[in-house]
Every structure is written in C-alpha cells, then in structure tokens.
Amino acid sequence: MSDTTNNSGSDFNDERPRAYTPKKGRPTPKRDEVERARGVRRGPVAAPETAKEARARRKAMKESMSKEEYKAYKNKQREERQRRARETQAAMDRGDEKYLLPRDKGEERKFVRDWVDSKRFLNNLVLPVALALLVIMFVGQIYPTVAGTLSMVTMVIILGFLIEGIFIGRGANKRVREKFPHTTDTGFGMGFYAYSRATQLRNLRTPKPRVKVGDQV
Fold this sequence. Notes:
Layout: H1 2-14, H2 31-38, H3 51-64, H4 67-94, H5 107-117, H6 126-140, H7 144-179, H8 187-198
Helix pairs in contact: 5-7, 5-8, 6-7, 7-8
Keywords: Membrane, Transmembrane, Transmembrane helix
Organism: Corynebacterium epidermidicanis
Transmembrane segments: 121-143, 149-169
C-alpha cells in the first residue's frame, strides 16, 4: 500500500520540470523598473528619467573619481555650458530663427525690427532717463529745490515717451499691414513689440540691428 503511494507520488513529481518554480501570483517587475525605483539604472548612455536617478548618477560618478579628476570634470562641464551659451547668443544676435524667442520669430517681427532700427526715437533714451531719475531722488534729499525742478523736466520727458510710443506702435502696424496684408499678428502685440524695441539702447538689442539709422526699409 505504501509502495503504491510512493510510486504514484514519484510519478507525479517526475511530470514536473526540474527547474519548476511555483507561480508568485503577480508579474515579475522589469529590471529597469526596479532600478528606476532605486534611483539607479544601468546603461548611462540614456538620459535620466527622474531627478532621483540623476542625483544617483552624479553621486556614483563623483565616488568613482579622485578629487582632482572630479574637479577637472566639473571645469570641463562649465566650459561646455559657457561655449553653448555663447553659440546660442551669437545665433540669436544673427537673428537665426531656430534660436530666437517666440516673440522674435516671423517675417513680420523681422521687418518691424528693421523699421525701428532704421530710425531715431526719443524712446531710445528711456534707460538713461531712468538712471537720471535715481540721481534726482538722491539729490532731492540734499537740495529739494533743485530736485523739484529736475523732477518737472523728467515728467515732461516721460510724457514725451508715452506720446511717441503711441506713434511708434501705430506706425509699425501701418507698415506691417502694407507689406504683409494677410498677417495674423495682433495690432497691440505688434505695436508693443516695436515700442519695446525702440526703448532699448541700440547696442543692447537682440537680435542685433541689421540696418543703419537712415536706411530705407
């Protein structure tokens, strides 16, 4: 009786593969999922997908280097960032559409920049006048009478800025709609873009001016 039982149990066990393991009741997680949960993934060629993973990579890299090697690595990274920043700024100064901010892209905006850069405006002095206001505020604490007179002159100049700004916006819109009758750019947005360009000092404008003052646009 016992022999029969043992034989049947042996036969039952022999039907299973030698490497058989019982099911866990849930799927086995993938290796990259486990490593991502721990903050470490193999194959550093791929970009880190989480902040935790990026921190873990930086920590592992630092621990694998000597102090001098890590310092040289950081210097190289900084130089590379500076190089890319210079290249990006140079491309923006040239007016390369790929690197321009959304507000500067488009043929209409390029035309407005040329139109503003070809003229002289009172608004070109906005920055110097703003600095003068700071000086007036300082002088006013010592010489109230002189500061009062200078403040009146400054207010007149500011009023001139506002009046001219209206004409700049209207003039830019008129010229744009003459050259680009099917433009979808709004009048206020185009006018404000022209005004903001005019308030910047010429050598500080980005993109850099392509035309000289007095050129026909």
